[in-house]
Amino acid sequence: MFLLWVSTVFTVLSAPPVDLVLGATNVRAEVADDPSARAYGLMGRTALNKDMGMLFVYPNQAKRSFWMKNTPVALSIAFISASGQIVHIAKMVPLDEAPVPSIHPTMYALEMSLGWFEAHGVSVGQTVAGLPGASSR
Fold first, then answer.
1. With b meaning 16 or more CB within 10 Å and e meaning fewer, what string describes 9-27?
2. HSE-up of 77 (CA within 13 Å, CB side)?
3. Among 98, 102, 36, which Cα is nearest to 71's?
4. Which has the closest alpha carbon to 133: 28, 60, 40, 50?
5. In sequence order, what are the residues at sequence separation of 6 or more whose Cβ sits closer than 8 angstroms to the Cβ of residue 125?
6. Hey, what domains does the chain have and what are their CATH numbers?
7. What tens digit of pLDDT does each residue of 29-66 get?
8. Strands 9-13 vs 2-6: parallel, antiparallel or unpaired
9. Is pLDDT larger for residue 60 or for residue 12?
10. Using H for helix, E for strand and C for coil, what is the string for the chain?
11. Is the pLDDT of residue 91 over 60?
12. Residue 20 contacts by C-beta under 8 Å, 6 or more apart in sequence?
């Protein structure tokens, strides 16, 4: 079990961080792979470190939806298929509770600072390397 303390927010993550490769850039991602960690996500965070994000891992591939409840930092999200292909990228507005849909079935979602994917030349159709297996929960 991994504990993370950030800006007075206490989060329990059940999986260790992973190193991902997107294009020519390495990313370190915290992993949310159980219902509680996925529900809490990046709530309460006011910033993310450079080239760091959160990877949401699900037990199966399905259409997903995210929101920004209690999340004051602006984010971009990449929805990723079971094969590791990015199928949709969207912007997420701080504190907005409107759903942000994956459009296509996905098994992973990667949240990064707003504009990160565009700034690093990462786009729909590219593959993400280093993804863990499906969540058991």
1. eebebebebeebebeeeeb
2. 25
3. 98
4. 60
5. 85, 86
6. 2-129 (2.60.120.1140)
7. 999 999 999 999 999 999 999 999 999 999 999 999 99
8. antiparallel
9. 60
10. CEEEEECCEEEEECCCCEEEEECCEEEEEEEECCHHHHHHCCCCCCCCCCCEEEEEEEEEEECCEECCCCCCCCEEEEEECCCCEEEEEEEECCCCCCCEECCCCEEEEEEEECCHHHHCCCCCCCEEECCCCCCCC
11. yes
12. 26, 27, 28, 29, 55, 110, 128, 129, 130, 131
Contacts of 5 (CB under 8 A, 6+ apart): none
- Asked if residue 134 lies in contact with residue 59, where contact means CB atoms within 8 angstroms, the answer is yes
Structure pTM?
Answer: 0.90
What is the pLDDT confidence band of residue 137, given thresholds at 50, 70 and 90? confident
